[in-house]
Design brief:
The structure is a homodimer.
Chain A: H1 5-18, H2 28-35, H3 39-51, E1 55-58, E2 64-67, H4 76-83, H5 109-125, H6 138-158, H7 160-163
Chain A binds a DNA duplex (30 and 30 nucleotides) through helix 3.
DNA sequence: TCAAATCTTTACTTTTGAGTCAAGATTGCA
DNA sequence: TGCAATCTTGACTCAAAAGTAAAGATTTGA
């Protein structure tokens, strides 16, 4: 379970914009420099984010990119959904080994794990907004640890999960 | 955020063993056939799982693989930790763009997300055992949805997260 | 209108992960 | 002992993701 380069860099570019005052915009060279990536790469990412409606691009002198919506209203789950390139829906069609379709037809425990995991991740991400990533680590840490703690408690109280 | 081929197939091979009666073992050709992957690929995966101590391998005629511990005692979080090839600890050393180290030194909101996400996933997985994956989808679904529901409730009650 | 600044798009190259192959080592059985 | 079944290991090939490059399109301002 790993975040892809596209997800990470794309998110970072958005956070740069979120940290820029509302009436200003950032150009491709600026974004590239601030994130330590090439201008070409930044260009591709911003193109994706523009297509998805997160940013507005203006061409010509004095052009650049800015967020289309307030950073507070953009949740990470939306962003990641756009930046990740495969859908969970299609899962049974990938990882089919040497065959055309997955050997596990019908009732499949693995599938549940994949889907369940994706839900857990999306749920966690839906509780964090772009705006929260601008400042220090504290706010984010707090959010995740709250989710963390509660799940833990639930599992212990329930008791069945691990020792079933 | 995506599960790798190694994680998926490795897990599936283990589930095959978990579904085999305690005194029996499965050979490489058997595992490969049941999961629809090549024998070579299965060999590599089982070698990893053997090295990590999840399975015991016996060579020679009548040999094969079997679980080293009861399936009920093996949690998915342990398994995934072994099958995923990069550590979260090393995160700031990957995705450094064209530079040698990440441009975000010190206090970094992105890092929190990566680490927090990993914790959420590991926590969810620690509540599912190999044994639970053998049967139908129901048990797994239940577990994940329980985690899901509780996080959701917590966020709503708290209220700050999304609309801060 | 023209040139400079900027985004857009497609094609190409590089890198990394996935998968295969083949030779080697160990065990059981006749 | 010797052969057949089985796991082990490292090198190799292939495919997909990541990143780069270059030509094109749009806007602003002189």
């Amino acid at each position: 379970m790993k975040i892809s380069a596209q997800e990470e860099y794309g998110l970072r570019c958005l956070v740069q914009l979120a940290g820029t005052s509302k009436d200003e915009s950032l150009t491709l060279p600026q974004i590239a420099e601030r994130e330590g990536i090439s201008q070409s790469n930044a260009g591709k990412l911003m193109w994706l984010l523009n297509k998805a409606g997160f940013v507005t691009a203006t061409r010509g002198t004095k052009g650049g990119y800015s967020l289309s919506r307030p950073a507070e209203d953009i949740s990470l789950s939306e962003v990641i959904k756009v930046l990740e390139d495969d859908e969970v829906e299609a899962h049974c069609g990938s990882y089919t080994g040497v065959l055309d379709s997955c050997v596990h037809t019908g009732d499949c425990g693995i599938r549940s794990v994949i889907v369940g995991l994706h839900e857990v991740v999306q749920n966690a991400l839906s509780n964090v907004s772009l705006a929260q990533l601008v400042g220090t680590e504290k706010k984010v840490d707090e959010t995740f640890h709250r989710i963390q703690g509660l799940s833990q408690v639930a599992m212990i109280k329930d008791g069945r999960a691990v020792s079933e």
